[in-house]
Predict the structure of Calponin-homology (CH) domain-containing protein.
Amino acid sequence: MAEPEVQAFFLFAQALTAELYPRSFVNRHLGKLSLEVTDIDTQFHDGVFFIFLLGLLEGFFVPLYQFHTIPKSDDEKRQNVDLALDLMRDSGLKFYAKTEDIIKRDLKSTLRIVYSLFQKYKHLK
């Protein structure tokens, strides 16, 4: 890793044990909608929290008719996650994660996205 990436990763590793633990970062923002994440690897698999979180961080609202707020099938989850990943890429976020991995509740892929969000928006209160 390049020096700035090492420093950024070190700061994130420190944050894992401090106040800025990823769940705290997520809950700080989702709390504005009275939502709380208790389990990162299971609550993001349908894309809904990613859509809400990005809207809060970027300052926009995704109309509720644009996604499935309570997805009932894997296809609806896939559409939500695809929308969330597209919105993140459009906002300039750089990460590597596949829609299928998020839907399958792969913690590593989910944390990659949360880490990318944290890196870009850690300064927001």
